[in-house]
Specification:
Blueprint lengths: L3 H19 L4 H14 L3 H7 L3 H13 L4 E2 L8 H13 L12 H21 L3 E2 L4 H26 L9
Helix pairs in contact: 1-2, 1-5, 2-5, 6-7
Length: about 170
């Protein structure tokens, strides 16, 4: 499908908003959007390999929880399913709506990650999906530092998992 990047973008943005606004109640629909992605994707194998990056995101957010940077609204002690699914959908953008990132130097990727990754979490806090005891300035600075590393790392890792024989990039 020639313009699948746009479908992927719409699916991811829908997932982000569903998770930020409805958290646990969004899980069934977010799961269905996973199925829709794979039903429509022109690169299912590469997308499935991108999901290998998912544990990195889960470890990052669980670590930030354990460090007290964020907490979960429903009192979870481990990452809630909606956040894990959101991470999964994020990894699926790496071959499609965010594939352009791989063409840029890691410094640019880091700067984009610092700003937009941090803003994404601030948005989640403002919409009530996450809590924090820290000031929003401190949360922004922490997530900016984290995402300045995370985004270039996931882009790099996605390029590595996509290099395996038999995987076709579309």
């Amino acid at each position: 499908m020639r313009n699948f990047w746009l479908i992927n973008l719409i699916i991811f943005q829908s997932v982000w908003w569903l998770c930020a606004l409805f958290t646990d109640q969004a899980v069934p629909l977010v799961g269905l959007l996973f199925l829709l992605h794979f039903a429509l994707s022109p690169s299912r194998k590469a997308d499935a390999r991108s999901l290998l990056i998912l544990p990195l995101g889960l470890v990052v957010d669980q670590s930030l929880f354990l460090l007290g940077v964020i907490s979960f609204v429903d009192g979870y002690q481990w990452l809630p399913l909606w956040l894990a699914l959101l991470w999964g959908h994020f990894t699926l953008t790496l071959n499609h709506s965010l594939s352009w990132m791989s063409r840029y130097h890691f410094g640019i990727q880091g700067a984009l990650g610092a700003v937009f990754g941090a803003l994404s979490y601030i948005g989640g806090i403002k919409l009530g999906a996450l809590n924090t005891a820290l000031s929003l300035t401190n949360v922004f600075l922490i997530f900016a530092a984290v995402w300045a590393v995370v985004l270039p790392l996931v882009v790099h890792l996605n390029g590595r998992v996509g290099q395996r024989p038999g995987v076709q990039h579309v």
